[in-house]
Amino acid sequence: EAKGSGRGRYMAYEPHMDTRREEKNQLEADLKYAIENDEIKVVFQPVVNTLTRRITGVEALARWNRAGYGPISPDIFIPAAESSGLIDQLGLSVLRKACHEAAEWSAVKLAVNISPVQFRNPGFAAQVMSILAENDIPPSRVMLEMTEGYFIHHPERAGTAIEKLKQIGVSIALDDFGSGFASIGYLRRFGFNRMKIDKSLVVALDEGGRSLEMLTATVALARSLGIPVTAEGIETEDQAAILQLCGCDELQGYLFSRPVPAEEIAQLLDAQDAPVEQRRVS
Ligand code: C2E
Ligand code: MG
Ligand code: MG
Ligand code: MG
């Protein structure tokens, strides 16, 4: 305890530190309870083909409505799960729910975010494989999305973990490209099957500068390596048009749909599969 005016400590005692620690502990305790009581929900955001605008896949996103607080952003609770040892359970539960829903939908691809912290578990690939099998989802339908952090710090271990996942037949995407330090070289080195352009690069387009040139060059490089590109955070037709010109083959963002519950995905898929005649009258 840092009480007693910080004797022999580097940091002086500040009352707010205890408060913050208590809040963190409470958050983790609530999260643990929520995971164990099946209170983490999954929503799905469509990913569309740039040219046809048809839904080609969906991305599963975790949601937590914390009792007494309301919705907590995954940007808060995923890191909390990672640092408190809850991520393995949370991650598998999201994958299980996502597969369960996706089993009801025609062939659209299913993307699920995974935390590189889950790579620490040597049985991870085997667990993924059995969840897919339980739900009759062919691995070729599934893409696991991961961000770069771990790759920079533990390239060897990341490489091994990814190799195992690719062996079971799922594909892997480098998520949030452009938000950190990952380079195009990573795509090749780890055998990523897809690059996802972070929404910050899309937003930057509106701010001018050299954003357009950067984006164009990035997409061109990925594509020259044979790696298809999805752009995230598309909110306007202008952005969609620019990313189409850049050569992105898939787009995702509020312009097409917000993340929605599974039932709404089913309706969206039904609507796009209905004959055009029927679509007009209904
Ligand atoms: P992500 O994987 O990059 O997911 C895209 C995020 O952008 C989602 O935020 C989505 O709701 C948001 N988004 C989509 N379209 C738009 C748009 O047009 N404009 C804006 N402003 N935002 C848009 P969300 O759901 O809050 O998730 C945040 C991050 O949390 C995710 O980023 C992902 O890294 C992480 N995450 C979410 N669910 C999981 C999960 O089950 N496991 C793991 N490990 N991470 C997850
Ligand atoms: Mg993602
Ligand atoms: Mg992303
Ligand atoms: Mg993200």
UniProtKB/TrEMBL annotation:
Residues 24-273 form the EAL domain. This is Diguanylate cyclase.
